[in-house]
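This section describes the prediction task in plain terms. A model, or a person checking by hand, is given the sequence of a single protein chain and must write out its three-dimensional structure as a string of tokens. No templates, partner chains or ligands are provided. The sample shown here is typical of the held-out split.
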Amino acid sequence: MNDLSNKKVNFVNSMVSDQFEIYHVKDVVDRHQTLYHYHDFYEIHATLAGKATFYLDGNQFEIEAGTVLLIDRNDLHRIVSQSTEIFERVYIFITPEFLQTFSTKNTNLESCFDLIDSRKSKVLKIKPDMLKKMLQFIDSEPSDNMFGSDIIYQQQLIQYIIFLNKLVLSSKYEREPTVLMQNKRIEEMINYISQNLDHSLDLDEMEKTFFVSKYYITREFKKYTGLTYHKFVQKKKLLYAKRLLKTYRSSADIYQKCGFNSYSHFLKSFKKEFGITPKEYIEKEAKTQRIYYQND
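The expected answer:
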């Protein structure tokens, strides 16, 4: 068996498929370069060695060898910092289309991302040796000169995803992470924001709803999430807009559902956040989804 912990690999494969990518990383996390981000595909983040602090959709918690994060599409996340000299992890970025293609009537590979207790993103804890064994295939990159190697590689990836689905379905290995920064009032605000994205959600609304000052909200929100209150709300609204666009197929039909007061403000904010207009996003979604990821 390959000992993944003895390897220093920054890039495992490049577009083995147009619907998934895998990275095996063993570098030092620069907290000034690991930005809050999100994407339109799923991420499976597995820690093979070391410890780090991770932010996922409102909470910061510690991850260590054997921790697997199933990160849903458009959930804000980042590595905040590492707390050990070595921090080795494997990222798998995978599209819903890939999982749907290999699903059957009896086996839905997207099940591990189904809603459980208002959460789609999940934290799994697995024995580190077992996790390394399940991921040993990633260092055997498919070769153009070896007939069938790409199919074998893909089959091993699917076996890994089946393994994770079984863990989630059994609930045996799933656990609530121990939150490192706790502020019940801010957590309540984050839940309120998520459930009321059609509201303006300005500071006046939050002040009246939670009976705290605007100063408290802006100060504690930045301290707790690393984002300003306005930026957090804006990102949540725009991510919600992307989900609605897939259903309504028209930005004119959804901007008010995302709490924007004007159509022009929505268009400007969407273009600034995603680099494309809502119309261009709809056209892009209509095509086969491909992953293009800058590993930072």
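For orientation: The CA atoms of residues 140 and 152 lie 10 Å apart.
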